[in-house]
């Protein structure tokens, strides 16, 4: 059986269909080039660890000037707001009554001394006579008792006179310490009394001056643990150095030294009071000022610093970084961060020296991607200080 030959139109239609079917197949696109990223090779370096804490200035010495005797204030002998020295007279209280008491006690002393002369002369005469049995033993004993009573009268009169002299001295109100005196709280003509609760004035020693800060007890435990484990080392004499920032943001030009830390923890705030002492020759610091103290705690000799821009956070807030392996593939690495050093974090766990951390281009890469890394240099933090707290 023979079939009819297809027409030329049918052959052309079939060829067109085969051509269209061939055009529907596309060649696979070439793989994209590795993403270019900036990386930093970690290196260990010593970093000083400091803690920045708020604090208050406290005077080293404060003397509340109060009267020791009763009387009317006759004179004020200082300029308010000036510097005074220890022993300088500040006020004069009317001394007339106390001077009269002193003069009376002095007269009693002279009378007792005169009676002592008479009693001693009698005792001297009765001594040889008693040995020669020219006078009775009773007469000699009476003469001896009279002489000793005269000695006692002299001692009592002298004590009364000395007490009166102390009261006369108290009418001259003196400065107990050297420092700067404030305003006078009582005027001339006012009655000063021994048991009054108000001060005549207050003298404050301003040089040197204390700065008290509250260090969290948890931070204190952490520091001691790091020192014990050898992660931190003492910075020699500088370990006791404290820097100060004033309330207006300026830096205090002179550094202080750590004086002591309190032995008890405040139960309400869970902090320990740490006291530093600062030279204050220009009286720039005044008691009660709010300041920020920077305590140098030690040195981490093998600190690893990672730029803060390289540290991301998980939804739970845990820090992570992107690390480039030897095969140029990227992986996520959880880390533990410590104090800040300028624009870097100190990483205490999760990384080691020599590893490469991605610092730029994080938004364009995913774990497992192959990248084209470019090395960037690590910048030093200002003064190599890490701040905590």
UniProtKB/TrEMBL annotation:
Limits of the Multidrug resistance protein MdtA-like barrel-sandwich hybrid domain: 62-203
InterPro entries listed in its UniProt record: MdtA-like_b-barrel (IPR058626), MdtA-like_BSH (IPR058625), MdtA-like_C (IPR058627), MdtA-like_HH (IPR058624), RND_pump_MFP (IPR006143)
BP GO annotations: response to antibiotic
GO molecular function: transmembrane transporter activity
Domain Multidrug resistance protein MdtA-like C-terminal permuted SH3: from-to ranges: 303-364
Polar residues: compositionally biased ranges: 371-382
Segments forming domain Multidrug resistance protein MdtA-like beta-barrel: 208-298
Pfam families: Beta-barrel_RND, BSH_RND, HH_MFP_RND, RND-MFP_C
Ranges where the Multidrug resistance protein MdtA-like alpha-helical hairpin domain occurs: 101-171
Keywords of the record: Signal
Superkingdom of origin organism: Bacteria
SUPFAM superfamilies registered for this protein in UniProt: HlyD-like secretion proteins
Compartment(s) where it occurs, according to its Swiss-Prot or TrEMBL record: Cell envelope
Positions of region (Disordered): 366-389
Secretion signal span: 1-21
Record's GO cellular component terms: plasma membrane
PANTHER family: ACRA/E-RELATED COMPONENT OF DRUG EFFLUX TRANSPORTER, MULTIDRUG EFFLUX PUMP SUBUNIT ACRA-RELATED
Family membership noted in the UniProt record: Belongs to the membrane fusion protein (MFP) (TC 8.A.1) family.
The protein's name in its UniProt record: Efflux RND transporter periplasmic adaptor subunit
């Amino acid at each position: 059986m023979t079939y009819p030959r297809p027409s030329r139109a049918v052959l052309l239609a079939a060829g067109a269909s085969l051509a269209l079917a061939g055009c529907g197949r596309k060649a696979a696109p070439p793989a994209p080039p590795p993403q270019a990223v900036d990386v930093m090779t970690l290196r260990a370096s010593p970093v000083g660890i400091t803690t920045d804490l708020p604090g208050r200035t406290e005077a080293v010495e404060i003397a509340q000037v109060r009267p020791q005797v009763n009387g009317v204030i006759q004179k004020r002998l200082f300029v308010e707001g000036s510097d005074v020295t220890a022993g300088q007279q500040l006020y004069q209280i009317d001394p007339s009554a106390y001077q009269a008491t002193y003069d009376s006690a002095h007269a009693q002393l002279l009378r007792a001394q005169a009676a002592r002369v008479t009693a001693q002369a009698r005792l001297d005469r009765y001594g040889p006579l008693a040995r020669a049995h020219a006078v009775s033993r009773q007469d000699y004993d009476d003469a001896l008792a009279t002489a000793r009573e005269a000695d006692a009268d002299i001692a009592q009169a002298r004590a009364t006179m000395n007490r009166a002299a102390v009261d006369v001295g108290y009418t001259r109100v003196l400065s107990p310490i050297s420092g700067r005196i404030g305003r006078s709280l009582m005027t001339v003509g006012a009655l000063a009394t021994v048991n009054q609760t108000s001060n005549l004035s207050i003298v404050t020693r301003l040089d040197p001056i204390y700065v008290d800060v509250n260090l969290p007890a948890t931070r204190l435990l952490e520091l001691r643990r790091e020192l014990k484990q050898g992660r931190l080392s003492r910075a020699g004499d500088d370990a006791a150095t404290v820097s100060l920032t004033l309330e207006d943001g300026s830096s205090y030009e002179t550094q202080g030294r750590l004086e002591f830390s309190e032995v008890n923890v405040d139960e309400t705030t869970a902090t320990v009071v740490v006291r530093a002492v600062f030279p204050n020759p220009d009286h720039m610091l005044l008691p009660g000022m709010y300041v920020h103290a920077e305590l140098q705690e030690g040195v981490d000799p093998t600190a690893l610093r990672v730029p803060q821009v390289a540290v991301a956070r998980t939804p739970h807030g845990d820090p992570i970084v992107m690390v480039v392996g030897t095969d140029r593939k990227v992986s996520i690495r959880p880390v533990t961060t410590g104090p800040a050093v300028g624009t870097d974090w100190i990483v205490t766990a999760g990384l080691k020296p020599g590893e490469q951390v991605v610092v730029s281009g994080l938004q364009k890469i995913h774990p497992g991607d192959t990248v084209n890394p470019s090395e960037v240099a690590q910048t030093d933090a200002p003064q190599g200080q890490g701040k905590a707290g």
